[in-house]
Design goal:
Blueprint lengths: L2 H86 L19 H4 L38
Length: 149
């Protein structure tokens, strides 16, 4: 064989080795990009699901506030109707506690000037579980023991 044929064979072998190494490098580097593409797609799907949940939650709160306003309006109308019916039937106009919403007066117990007693954890004449000497024995007759180390 000639020297020129060996040079051509060596050049072709190096070219094939370079193409193989390039393809291997592209495959290894592109695998990470493909995984990133799948992660981006999953993230976009999760964002769409989250926005749909937020929209549903907003609609839910709007409906609940509308229902609460309707309920408040209906209860006011019911109270007005009951007050009107009570007055037309000749009922007492003072003191029906549930009918007069605007004329709510504080209960008699809250307006009294009596001082409220402080709650205790024991009955009169005996110490309870929260007293300072609960469960302690009288140590005045014994000598103090030496500390243990």
């Amino acid at each position: 064989m000639d020297e020129s044929n060996i040079n051509w064979i060596l050049a072709i072998a190096c070219l094939l080795a370079g193409i193989g190494l390039g393809a291997l490098g592209y495959h290894l580097l592109n695998a990470g990009a493909d995984g990133m593409q799948r992660l981006r797609q999953r993230l976009a799907e999760r964002d769409r699901e989250l926005s749909a949940l937020r929209d549903g939650l907003d609609e839910h709160f709007d409906e609940v506030s509308r229902l609460a306003a309707t309920l408040r309006h209906d209860s006011e109308a019911l109270a007005a109707r009951l007050a009107e019916d009570a007055s037309t039937l000749g009922g007492r106009t003072r003191g029906r506690r549930g009918l007069a919403v605007e004329e709510a007066t504080p209960p008699a117990e809250a307006t009294s000037d009596e001082a409220l007693a402080t709650p205790r954890d024991y009955a009169d004449g005996s110490g309870g579980t929260l007293s300072e000497d609960f469960g302690l024995k009288d140590d005045t007759t014994r000598e103090p023991e030496a500390p243990r180390y």
